[in-house]
């Protein structure tokens, strides 16, 4: 049996293009003992993947050139030689960017049967939602009386983080890159929202948070981080989740010019990698958040692209913000 996969052709300097990727056809091996054959239904494209296209190790190894990429995927098991992974079950694996794969049964997780779209296991009920939860609960230690600002708030992680913070009772401010996205944030329950392209964060936050910020959930870095640090109150906390504003930078960008605020305001800025929390916290997250997604308290916005051929464009659009919520590539039904 053959599978189609997306490979890298180069390590891009600056913004990747469609020429950074190629569609390849490979022969799958026979299913051996303890293995399963997977038919991909959908897979995720995420900002962290840009770092794996640099050719150097960050917190994970870079993607290889002209070889199989990986990432979160929901698949159907079509052949199994593993006692605990039955044929017909839906599983979560790291076998994204392809339409089929042979995998170790121990390396996949059989998904629970919940009344939600299977794509939500890539988003609100997967690593995306878990990232938002960890940033709020374990890193920022969010309290009900906090004022929190979430950047890239219409994105996959930001939209869930804002809704979870609001559910906890916090006052939530979000920024996004278009008026339509700002309107969507208000529909999701954000107390305040602004378009950072027409209303710079340093101006908007002064108006929308007159008493300052207690928490900042950072998905952007750069000038937005600097603005948030300006308005964080004494003992404010920042969960540093990502810095998408610099992922395509060809030169090191300047850091925030107000780093002395960390000392004078006794701030805590902490970066985090969500996989560090998987073993200790994922079950707690799933128990708390699954009911909220099922009953619609947490709305899981998605942008769906159809077909493996569209995966490179989906990735480019995700990086540029040309989407709403979680970007997912559907491959099968």
UniProtKB/TrEMBL annotation:
Molecular function in Gene Ontology: oxidoreductase activity, acting on the CH-CH group of donors, NAD or NADP as acceptor
Signal peptide: none
InterPro entries with a match to the protein in the record: ADH-like_C, ADH_N_2, ER, GroES-like_sf, MDR_fam, NAD(P)-bd_dom_sf
Keywords from the UniProt entry: Oxidoreductase
UniProt-listed SUPFAM superfamilies: GroES-like (SSF50129), NAD(P)-binding Rossmann-fold domains (SSF51735)
Database matches in Gene3D superfamilies: Medium-chain alcohol dehydrogenases, catalytic domain, NAD(P)-binding Rossmann-like Domain
Superkingdom of the source species: Bacteria
Domain Enoyl reductase (ER): 16-329
Keyword Oxidoreductase in record: yes
Xref: SMART domains: PKS_ER
This protein's name: NADP-dependent oxidoreductase
Species this protein is from: Persicimonas caeni
